[in-house]
Request: fold
Amino acid sequence: MFTIRGATIRRHIELRFGDKWTKRLTRPTTPRSFFAYLDKRFAMWNRLIEIHGLETELYPEFGKLNARSLAESAGVATPQLLDGPIGVSELRLEEYGDDFVIKPDWGASSRGVLVLRRQSDDSFLELISDTMLSSSEIRERLTSAIDASGRGSTTNLIVESSMADGDTLPTDWKVYTFYGRVGLVLQIDRSGTRRSKAYSADWKDLGRVRGDTAFSSALPGPSDPAGILAAASAISTKVPTGFMRVDLYEAPHDGGVVFGELSLVPGGDQFYRRGVDRTLADLWDDAEVRLMTEQKPLIP
Reply:
């Protein structure tokens, strides 16, 4: 510390206010922060991967096939499973109907995911990229995307029925859950220019909560808001972790809630504005305390 005529500022504070005040002033403190908690988890998981291999070896429930089973055990509907696990060279594209999704059993941020709508026997519209692909191009696209991401495997894919409504991608409902409690719902609309809307657990519009996404208050809310919260909460309590994002859809015709996937480390910039960031961190802390109180094994 700085010295004033042979005495430190610390010593002056100790003499005047006592030792507890010097500890407050000189020991670094970090405010609770969802962003910081998530950043620490990301760093720790990268280290786990370096030592033990892919995350599926440590936490198999986050493979997509296992996650489907977990959602079903929570009473939440899942898209029809058309095939899988299956390798890219074994795909039977002629058998999956007109609308289907191919994805690696393990992956994140839509890497290696193709949402396909058949146009003819060997021509498919890929809805995410809005490009036309032949059967051979589908296999090439899957292989290059999965290899580039370093996640998942071209020998371990699943094929599901699509939640798209014709050529329109479904709205995503990304629910930030904290062992049974909901802290935030992020709506992602991909019809045209990608737009988002953020809601509190009681469905209040939170406005622009982060800087990497275009937010629009004009987006309509879900058909079944209570159903989305109930589904996310039920799935969340199946996994002993302080935070998990549960991704859901609403079926295009009947509005029923359908499971998408689980994520412990969501993609994108998770730097939310201060009040939201602190609220999510508090919910994370509370969830871990409840898990420890219940003496359940904690996924950090």
